[in-house]
Amino acid sequence: MREDHSYDDIIHLPHPDSAVHPRMPLADRAAQFSPFAALTGHDAAIRETERLTQSRREPTEDQKELLDQRLQMIREILARQKGEPISPEINSSPKITFTYFEPDGKKEGGSYLTVTDRVRRIDPLARQVVLAGGTVLDIGRLWAIEGAMFTS
Q: Are 67 and 59 contacting, i.e. CB atoms less than 8 angstroms apart?
């Protein structure tokens, strides 16, 4: 028997089609060779582990006293405005910059965030500062309160 590795006799013949199995679409053929994630969610878990959080620092007694003084100053300004119609658009209280700790929802720790806005109200019972833009800050998580009104 002669070993001829030439395919000249069949190269131009039409591709055989099965009567039982239809041809696979090209997109599906390509997909069977694409890589797959054997561990679903593994990449997301690695990214979550890599994401850094900060530990919450406890303010010193001096910092706590300064925060209390500044909150009191803001309360006094808001009390003077009590008779005036106050809405977020026409609130004449000065803009204040708050730095606060925001706990992470998925892992231990969190991050320190900064927001600058006008104060709508301070709720001493709920221990919250409500800003004109709708942000609600927990007084216990405040780290710093800054603004032009505190430098004069």
A: yes
